């Protein structure tokens, strides 16, 4: 037992330590998916992100571009309350990032690609090279893409993190997170996971392992449906702008083709109206449900200003290009004609 506790011998010990057979089996599968040396399974995506941040907080964290609202709150509110300085940069061209890294000298550079909710992309390989040249590590939130569509570690990132509540779980019936990377760094991060009580429950680990069996099949259908809906929205007279990296009109479409093998099941759009019109549109939907999650088999619609980005300052919302007219769709596995018909009837009734 002592050798197991000390890490000298593989074996089971105590679930909060992660030394549970079900948890360890899951983590082996997650590491294979992410092409990583090792993975840690957490009780939620934010648990994984917070453990990662605590590992590097004292050495500095630079956040690039748009990120999930909970991540932004952690960086701008909770960590500063502990006296931890974090830095954010909205401009993500390589020259601006290089200047920021040289100025702030962070140990960790963090980003999402595609981002929540506007589907902005980051040049992962270019940023990884830049971070490494300046003594920093790169972490990528890969929740929207999933490892089926994009592998940040293959592109040079040191860590990839996901809310497994979303596509990995895929059925809106569990809450979990995953962090993958090199084994040495994850050993340090595991101490935070253990002592903050963030380890995934064994029952949830079993359910998540089951869900991974159909991940590739589900993501393929998500990709196909989302592309067709994005094409439909992009041509609609009541849509001001559609955000989907699979569209040729997306400003970063070429980058998407370079670093993604599929473009994902998330699409957002700005309705040609105000926030009240967006609310009416969502209320009129019948096949799409109103719910704040994403990545499940069922299609969902939300206004990010009231969900993922609720409570953020006007300045942060402006930088993220999030306002009341923005609608985020998590496009599920239903028949594509049913989904498009539902959107069309809502548009026709929404004045």
Characterise this structure.
This protein is of the alpha/beta class. The chain folds into two domains: 2-212, Type I PLP-dependent aspartate aminotransferase-like (Major domain) (Aspartate Aminotransferase, domain 2, 3-Layer(aba) Sandwich), CATH 3.40.640.10; 215-349, Aspartate Aminotransferase, domain 1 (Alpha-Beta Complex), CATH 3.90.1150. Helices cover 43% and strands 15% of the residues. The strands form two sheets. Strands 1-7-6-5-4-2-3 form a seven-stranded mixed β-sheet, with helices on both faces. Strands 8-9-12-11-10 form a five-stranded mixed β-sheet, with helices on one face. The protein is globular, with a radius of gyration of 20 Å. The protein starts with a helix and ends with a helix. The relative contact order is 0.14. The mean pLDDT is 94.
